[in-house]
Amino acid sequence: MSPSRVHNDLPRYDFPEDTEEILEYADLEALDISKLDQPGGKESLAAQVLQFINKNGHGFSEEEVKRQYALCRAVFDLPLGEKLKYACDTAKGDFRGYKPQSTGKLSVRDNDERYNIPKFTPEHERPHPQIILDHLDEIRDFSLKVHDQVLIPLLRLFAYVLEIEEKYFVDRHRYEAPGLEYLRYMKYFPRSVEEDAEVGNIWARGHTDYNTLTFLFHQPIAGLQVQTPEGRWKYVKSSSDAIIVNIADALEFLSGGYLKSTVHRVIRPPEDQANRPRLSLIYFARPEANTILKPVVSPLLQRLGFQRDVESFAHDVTAEEWARARIAKDHRFRTGLVDKPEKEIIAGVNQRFYD
Ligand SMILES: O=C(O)CCC(=O)C(=O)O
Ligand SMILES: [Fe+2]
């Protein structure tokens, strides 16, 4: 990012204090993706990927990340009426723009507000609040950097691990192609002990994401948990020099179930952090809109017996159809159109629920 692109009219953001509580953290792998270009680096990283990826080293400075958090905070500090002008059309499965927190009885189902900024292509040109427009170059630089410097190397690495053409996934995640990839600003609202007890301390129910890979930037307020293969929930430890990476549904389908979509949730933070709003900065990478979510033909998957449709779709489903169906389904539950989370998503494939 060139200095001229940084506007200094944003109040500085500082990370909240770490919790003093002793929590049970999941044992995650750290990947140093800068090794990719070094001799032998690919092989050693691939070995690590084979043991599971959850986390990777990255090229973002703490200041760059904090600038995004400062913008995140500024957007949510706008009056509700202003934010609602940019509301997203989740009923139609479109998550671009602002999603308010549900109110009244429904607030137990939905404890956050979001602002999703789509990738910067003509397809996604849309109005934004002035604070976003004033920093559009900086946000674009940040988003592109995630796409180019974090997503693309990891996609190359996954292709290498699956023993397929190294550009296979890269060719299906072209930045300029149609497809809804976005940067998300998110804010969770602190609730009283009593309110949280009523919802089993859940701030975001256990779920998988519906994209390819999700990148979660440093977040000192504990609360994000992953489910271990044994079904236990463990905290994800965030550190400022790492990005948490979730494998999501599209990559699970494309790998015939070999790479598993990470099951995760957000719970009430430890008491020394529980009374603060929790801001999240997340990038959701998605395959191009018309990518069919079928397993790739891979020698590794063939050897391991993963070369079948893991959840047997009744017909071909594209990345766009899958995401829209899941977003619209979440919309119906969150807004009270249905009383229970619906099971079927699309083409006979069920979304799993874990809480
Ligand atoms: O806020 C977080 O830490 C996780 C959010 C999340 O899982 C999501 O938005 O899909
Ligand atoms: Fe998620």
TrEMBL record:
Top-rank taxon: Eukaryota
Keyword Iron set for record: yes
Ranges of residues in domain Fe2OG dioxygenase: 179-287
GO function term, MF aspect, one: oxidoreductase activity
Keyword Transferase in record: no
Gene Ontology biological process terms from the UniProt entry: small molecule biosynthetic process
Entry-linked SUPFAM superfamilies: Clavaminate synthase-like (SSF51197)
Entry keywords, A to Z: Iron, Metal-binding, Oxidoreductase
UniProt record similarity statement: Belongs to the iron/ascorbate-dependent oxidoreductase family.
Protein name: Fe2OG dioxygenase domain-containing protein
Organism: Diatrype stigma
